[in-house]
Amino acid sequence: MSRPPTAAQRRVIESADPVTGRLKGTEAQLAALVRSGLAFRHPRPPHDHFLTPAGHRIREKESEPAPASEPPASSGGVFTARVGGEEAAPESGPARRREVHSAWQGMLELRRMTHPDGATDRPCPWERTHLVQAAALALEAAGHRPAGPEGDGYRVRETPQPEAVAVYAPDGAELSACAATLERAGWQAGEYTEPRTRVRYVLASPRRV
Q: 78, 57 in Cβ contact below 8 A?
């Protein structure tokens, strides 16, 4: 188990930007937070530091302690991308936006570390083995809303094709927007029509080069 942050490190965490989690502090403080898994260094200039989901949880615990009558929050710390169609209504609000932002920044860092050329503009091996979650994260990070119980929003689904997912949306404009988002995130995406149902969808695959 990692050691708890020092008082100086807690002050750095508490002063982080409430939405992006961007940190300000000395190089030593920021490096210590990275080593403890509470922050990460962005791979692109100016190489700012940001809170990880674990860092955000510490910040929220310090600034907004839960009442004693409420059960403690889950300590699993596992981020789950919203693929659309979950039984519960999709989470929204600043806390969810921070989680998604941190998860996407972490994915970019994983791309940088796992590609021999350090590229962040195309999916990494993890994304190729978790296609649905990876595509859903790219969409949610770009501001698209996953479908709730009412069906309004995107849905990402597996397909019989290798290394390909299908994305559905409530209308053509949103479908085209999802395709454009995935293209920017390093995927190959095209719009198609199911021959039997005539439903439009996006077929997306991780780009290799």
A: no
Dist. CA 106–CA 79, nearest whole Å: 11
Paired tokens of 164: 């390909």
Nearest residue to 181 via CA among 123, 140, 130: 140
Can you spell out the DSSP letters for 170-209? SSHHHHHHHHHHHHHTTEEEEEEE-TTT--EEEEEEE---
| 146 class by beta-carbon count within 10 Å (0-12 exposed, 13-18 middle, 19+ buried) | buried
33 neighbors 55 (Cβ within 8 angstroms): yes
| Tens-digit pLDDT profile for residues 46-96 | 888 988 877 877 877 765 433 333 323 333 346 788 999 887 766 778 888
User: What single-letter DSSP state applies at residue 157?
Assistant: E
Q: Encode pLDDT of 104-138 as tens digits.
A: 988 998 898 888 888 999 999 889 999 999 999 99
